[in-house]
Amino acid sequence: MSSVSITRPVPSEELRHRAGPLWSVAAVLIAALVLMPVITVAVMALNPTENIWPHLLATTLPRYVSNTLLLAVGTGVLAAAMGTGAAWLVSMYQFPGRRGLEWLLLLPLAVPAYIGAYALADFLDYSGPVQIALREAFGWTSSRDYWFPAIRSRWAAVLVLAASLYPYVYLFTRAALHEQSGSAYEVARALGTGPWGLFWRVGLPLARPAIAAGATIAMMETVADYGVVSYFGVHTLNTGIFATWLEARNPGGAAQIACVMLIVIASLAVWERIARRKARYHQSARQSRPIIRQRLSGSAAWAATAACTFPFALGFVLPVAVILNYALAYPQGWLTPGLGRALWHTVTAGGVAAMLTVLLALIMVYGVRLSGRSLPRLLLPVTTIGYAAPGAVLAVGILFPLAALDHRVADAVLAATGTDPGLILTGSAAAIVLAYLVRFFAIAQGAADGAFTRIPPSLPMAARSLGQNSAGVLRRVFLPLMKGSVGSALLLVFVDCAKELPATLLLRPFNYETLATRVHERASLEDLGNAAPAAILVMGVGIIAVALLARANLGLRKD
């Protein structure tokens, strides 16, 4: 993940002397809270109650690792091809539908990959419309009469994950292409370079760092995925954590597998940094010339439209159409018991987590900017590791320290009052909220730091000269000017909380459902009729976030 840069204003020495230690302590405590799950996983893996490394190495671990790597590489390559091709076409050419496709290509981000998996399996399975149409067209009566690829397989998982995650590559690559001057392309055309040569020799080298960054995020999300691989029956490191923890009842073994996942994620992050460091391309200091799109005509124009429509249709149109079809065919699904409760749990847990995450991110970033100490400044970039850590890994690192704390608190209350309060933290949604906070802290932190940086230092300095202390400057100066960024961060964190599946499955109390877990459980039982309403609600909140993302990054009001 990208590191966070801090631009530190210079407060007065008196204010720093009075407020610095307090803000430093707050920043360090918040960093400790965010880093606690990852540290716990490492400690548990090094000191397991039952060492199953020999058993894992001799049996399942090689298969988990190989499947995970094959999925990650396959998804990264396919997502890079889809996203780069779409970004190149919408940036360099004019063709029918280009203006709409420019932002429609982002919509697959609104559809969780596990919903795409349910839709693809339903569409292509033996009882789906594709195979039914083939049997009717050719007179086949059973599956023995023809060959059709297995849907619940590794290749299908790669296809679904790439269709869901290519927008990361598309967004980064499109931004990189638009930041480059059009002069390089004009010179290449003047020298006789054709469309393919223009892409391979000019566009691709210039956009390679952005492509690497987007593909790495897609690969990280693939490693962290649970819904798709569990539905398609692909055994990965993530499913291994669930099997070792829930079926084998071995939390130490689950922590050891979680450490392997962290090593894979860290390796991907390091690879992405190295790839970007080796590729350095600089613009001229002169005013850059915008890219002039070439107008396509005839079959080339419609081929470009089809090429950009395919990933959008696969990642958004297909899952939405399948889910809407079930919602219309089974309207009683909206009245099934538990849907309203799952919606309430999603709103409350996600809402509380979003508010806490943004609040703590504001406090930490402000404290680091105000403090003159090096420790908080060193810890700030490290807290983004939670976004790279899969939800299952965080669940392992959160549940056991919280359970230990729960038992200590319950014993103390019982000794003092004679009443057993039960498990307060792990018996409620508190563990889920903490997992969401750690997982998505980087989003809120990035938004907060960017908002602080955009405010001129003269404004807080003027407030200090008028007698405001550090808390007053934050409340009266920064927050009113940052409300747009704070609101966007709240929404983005809430949407990601609503879609999060692995951490919620592992940390939820008994009989506690969110929309994501409801969709997963109903779809796992092949009950898409009752899964459809919850899936539509999850996709609805995702579409809102994607619309804001498109407005902020694509400049939709500009031609």
Please describe what this structure looks like.
With 559 residues, the chain is mostly helical. The chain folds into two domains: 212 residues, MetI-like fold (Orthogonal Bundle); 256 residues, MetI-like fold, CATH 1.10.3720. Helix content is 75%, strand content 1%. The protein is built from 24 helices and two strands. The protein has a two-stranded parallel ribbon with strand order 1-2. The longest helix is centred in the first third of the chain and has 34 residues. It is globular and about 80 Å long. The protein starts with 12 loop residues before the first helix and ends in a 6-residue tail after the last helix. The N terminus is likely disordered.
Task: Record keyword descriptors for this entry.
559 residues; mainly alpha; MetI-like fold; two-stranded parallel sheet; disordered N terminus
